[in-house]
Each structure stands twice: as structure tokens, then as C-alpha cells.
Inverse folding.
């Protein structure tokens, strides 16, 4: 439901709030669509000088709604392309992106941060990318960006073992710019967004384009997406999502 993404534009700062706290801000197709529409539209809106992404409640996001994944794995749904639109909108976004992250940031909740220009973590933040544990592969160009950011060894451990990275380690590794007490998170992220909004927009855009090749990232996303779609329809994925629904550990030794 699009009401699960709240949009506010004040003083040059376009704030996107993930507002589904009862479901730990798990992202649905409709939410991806609303996020993509808003980020794409911001490219043509001079009043949107900075985009701030935050989550309501005690968690940034649990990642993709597992129910939607499970429906595809079970052959009950063809899946959605809105998630593709969303991650590609992040790659192509020329506006400064700021993220405020509290609690868990799972899957795309972590990989989207690789596209943000400034990331502020609450001291209780925990980042994880458990794609392989769900019989899937990394997305959002994270297979390229994560090793480049934190090194192959750390990135592989995050992907292959689903290891959770606490806020302080994320800061030390270069996945964040700040770690602040939870009660200071929104104020710190807003202050940084306000500073960016006062900077010359043209110079910020030119700088970001020099530092990031959006189309190269989109190409990586497309390669990942092909593998992701294939993996989602495997016996391994069916076992992963069946086990999740049954609240038991998956047994991948039973599937080829």
C-alpha cells in the first residue's frame, strides 16, 4: 500500500519514510513503486535538493516482504518489476541521498545504503545481507559495490554467511559516515541534509556524476537480476521460504 511510504518536502529536503512498522517496514511491490516514482520525479523537481530516507519504528527495514518472495518461489506469482525500478532509480539519482538507519537493515535495507551519499546509523543499527541463506544472490549492484567498499573477505562473509554487522563496525569499514545515539538519529540526519541543501546544487550534481557511473551500476543490477530471478524459482529457494514459513532451519542437503 502506498500509504506505507510517507512523503514530505520541506525546505529543499524530500523525506521518504518507510511507514509499515507493524511489519518491520518490510518492502512490498507497492512501496517499491512509490519510492521509485518519487525518486524519479525528484530529478525534475528543483525544490527537491536532497533526498532523505528513513524508517518509522524500531527498525529501518526487514528488507523485501518475504511473502512476496515466497509466492514467486512457489509459482503463485510472476513477481514484480517495481523493485528493479527502485534500485535503478537509486543508481541514477543525481540528488544527494541521505539515510537515517535504526535497528536492523536487512537485504535491500543494507544494499540501498551503498547508493546513499551520507549514511547515519543509530548505535543500535545492524546491517545484514542474508541473500545466500535464502538461496538467492546479491542485488542492487552490491556484488560490485560491497567488495569495492569493504574488501572481498568482509563482503563475502556478509553475503555467504549472512553475518550481521553492528553499527560501529559498519562505520569502521566505511559503510557509514556517522554513528549516533538512537535519540539523536533523526536530528543528525536532518542536519546533514540541511547542510547539503545549502550547497550549490549544480556542483553537487557534477561531483556525484564524476564519482559514480550510474549506468555501469544499472548494468550490474541487470546481471544480478537475471541470476536472482532464476534462483528464486529453484528448489533451494522453495526450501528456504517453506522453512521460513514453518519457523524451522532450512535443510539444503535435501535439494540438488
Amino acid at each position: 500500500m502506498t500509504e506505507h511510504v510517507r512523503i514530505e518536502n520541506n525546505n529543499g529536503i524530500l523525506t521518504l519514510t518507510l511507514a509499515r512498522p507493524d511489519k518491520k517496514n518490510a518492502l512490498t511491490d507497492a512501496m517499491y513503486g512509490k519510492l521509485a516514482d518519487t525518486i524519479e520525479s525528484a530529478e525534475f523537481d528543483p525544490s527537491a535538493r536532497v533526498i532523505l530516507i528513513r524508517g518509522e519504528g524500531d527498525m529501518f527495514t526487514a528488507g523485501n516482504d518475504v511473502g512476496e518472495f515466497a509466492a514467486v518461489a512457489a509459482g503463485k506469482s510472476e513477481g514484480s518489476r517495481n523493485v528493479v525500478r527502485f534500485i535503478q532509480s537509486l543508481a541514477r539519482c543525481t540528488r544527494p541521498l541521505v539515510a537515517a538507519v535504526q535497528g536492523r537493515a536487512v537485504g535491500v535495507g543494507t544494499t540501498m545504503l551503498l547508493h546513499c551519499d551520507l549514511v547515519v546509523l543509530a548505535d543500535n543499527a545492524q546491517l545484514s545481507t542474508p541473500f545466500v541463506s535464502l538461496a538467492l544472490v546479491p542485488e542492487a549492484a552490491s556484488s560490485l559495490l560491497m567488495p569495492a567498499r569493504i574488501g572481498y573477505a568482509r563482503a563475502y562473509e556478509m553475503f555467504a554467511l549472512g553475518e550481521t554487522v553492528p553499527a560501529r563496525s559498519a562505520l569502521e569499514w566505511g559503510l557509514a559516515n556517522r554513528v549516533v545515539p538512537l535519540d539523536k538519529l533523526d536530528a543528525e540526519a536532518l542536519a546533514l541534509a540541511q547542510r547539503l541543501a545549502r550547497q550549490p546544487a549544480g556542483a553537487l550534481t557534477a561531483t556525484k556524476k564524476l564519482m559514480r557511473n550510474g549506468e555501469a551500476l544499472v548494468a550490474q543490477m541487470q546481471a544480478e537480476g537475471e541470476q536472482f530471478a532464476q534462483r528464486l524459482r529453484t528448489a533451494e529457494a522453495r526450501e528456504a521460504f517453506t522453512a521460513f514459513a514453518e519457523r524451522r532451519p532450512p535443510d539444503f542437503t535435501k535439494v540438488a
